[in-house]
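// run 5 | inverse folding | seed 20
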């Protein structure tokens, strides 16, 4: 195979492919001794060699040999040495953390994010760092300084964003699973467009320590996987309190695999009228009706509800997120750990470094956020957006007095063509159905649930705060039923 292997991995390979199984199945096969890590890694890297030159999911990648040899001693751990890809705005020590930006092209963090540390402690290995919209600002992964990622279903289309590299890697069979970050939908929307599972946990359930800040009151780390039980497995490892994150919840870690059941008996699902506009088109609307019918077959009661403040979520989000981004990105001044432009004075150096280092979308959001926070406009824009956010959270709270979970589409459209959405507003509308839950800090999951225009279309479930067990169980029941 081109390199020497230790005796403990030299057994005959299986007669069937492995990477199209989920992480859970590969882990079980490894534990039973049916396969070894060499089989998994070789299949992953064969897919990478075939597809990565076009898909461009990774910005950095571990060597095969390192992953194989690195599994030694992990035989009794949760992940048994299996590799997991990490979005490149989550700090690792093995690779640079670029955030998809020229400003951080050579930045190497001296510490790893808490979520990564917990994966490593559970026996996982970092496979590499995945591409993203610069500083996680985007819905297509076209805004990376290192080139766009392409959708494995159609190389002329986007994978969604900003965690497009993570979603594309999992969908292409280049990674078994990945971590992404979700500020307004950046785990769920690319998962939907790539036909994989994406989970946004309750805000604060997973530590943000080591996640490079975009909008601190919204940012959340979540898994992107091939199955719901993989998302449950990873969440079980990375969730839990962290004293290094002041926004971390005190809720103890749980085993989210426990309690998964193949039905929806006793659950009430709410379908918001605002999440099924006629603009979705007849195919998407038929899919949504089919989801509701299937939910009823699985024992759920499906109710029509209304979330009228949904139309205000998008402007509120872009004011809040942009204001927080403007504050967070002020630290990138060319003085410490970023690109430094030559200049005669300190002020000129800062201005030139930021001008050369930031891309157009990041500059746009910094400008919007700075304006929203400026004297005379703070209360009119940022303050009002925060009040709308509170009203949206209260609206969800009232809805959950009537239903257990909310069901609807993840994205208004399937994957669009690269370069198609040149108007920023049309791009922002891609997050129309994911932003409300993010503003309210709620957990939500997207699962593949049919196709529109022969492209994946995602089903989204939203739950109350800390309802991950119910959310994952319902998603697993849907997943099993839709596969049948």
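// decoded
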């Amino acid at each position: 195979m081109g390199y020497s292997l230790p005796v403990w991995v030299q057994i005959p390979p299986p007669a069937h492919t492995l990477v199209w199984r989920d992480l859970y199945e590969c882990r079980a096969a490894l534990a039973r001794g049916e396969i070894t890590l060499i089989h998994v890694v070789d299949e992953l890297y064969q897919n990478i060699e075939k597809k990565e030159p076009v898909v461009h999911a990774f910005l950095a990648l571990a060597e095969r040999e390192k992953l194989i040899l690195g599994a030694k001693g992990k035989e009794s751990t949760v992940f048994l040495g299996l590799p997991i890809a990490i979005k490149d705005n989550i700090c690792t020590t093995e690779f640079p953390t670029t955030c998809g930006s020229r400003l951080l092209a050579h930045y190497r963090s001296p510490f790893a994010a808490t979520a990564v540390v917990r994966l490593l402690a559970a026996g996982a290995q970092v496979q590499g760092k995945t591409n993203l919209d610069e500083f996680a600002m985007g819905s297509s992964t076209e805004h990376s300084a290192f080139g766009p990622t392409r959708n494995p279903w159609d190389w002329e289309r986007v994978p969604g964003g900003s965690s497009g590299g993570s979603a594309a890697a999992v969908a292409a069979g280049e990674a078994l699973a990945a971590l992404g970050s979700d500020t307004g939908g950046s785990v769920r929307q690319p998962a939907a467009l790539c036909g994989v599972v994406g989970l946004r946990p309750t805000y604060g359930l997973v530590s943000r320590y080591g996640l490079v800040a975009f909008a601190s009151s919204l940012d959340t780390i979540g898994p992107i996987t091939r199955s719901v039980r993989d998302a449950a497995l990873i969440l079980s490892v990375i969730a839990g309190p962290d004293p290094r994150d002041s926004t971390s919840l005190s809720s103890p870690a749980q085993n989210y695999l426990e309690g998964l059941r193949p039905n929806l008996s006793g659950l009430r699902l709410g379908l918001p009228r605002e999440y099924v506009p006629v603009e979705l088109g007849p195919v998407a609307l038929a899919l949504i009706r089919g989801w509701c019918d299937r939910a009823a077959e699985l024992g759920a009661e499906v109710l029509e509800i209304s979330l009228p403040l949904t139309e205000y979520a998008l402007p509120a989000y872009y004011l809040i997120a942009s204001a927080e981004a403007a504050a967070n990105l002020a630290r990138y001044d060319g003085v410490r750990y970023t690109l430094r432009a030559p200049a005669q004075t300190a002020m000129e150096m800062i201005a030139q470094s930021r001008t050369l280092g930031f891309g157009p979308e990041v500059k746009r959001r910094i400008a919007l956020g700075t304006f929203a926070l400026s004297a005379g406009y703070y209360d009119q824009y940022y303050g009002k957006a925060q009040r709308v956010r509170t009203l949206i959270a209260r609206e969800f709270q009232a809805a959950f007095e009537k239903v257990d979970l909310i069901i609807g589409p993840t994205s208004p459209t399937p994957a669009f063509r690269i370069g198609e959405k040149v108007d920023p507003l049309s791009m922002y509308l891609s997050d129309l159905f994911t932003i409300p839950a993010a503003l309210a800090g709620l957990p939500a999951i997207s699962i593949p649930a049919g196709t529109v225009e022969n492209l994946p279309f995602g089903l989204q479930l939203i739950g109350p705060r800390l309802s991950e067990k119910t959310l994952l169980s319902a998603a697993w029941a849907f997943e099993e039923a839709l596969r049948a």
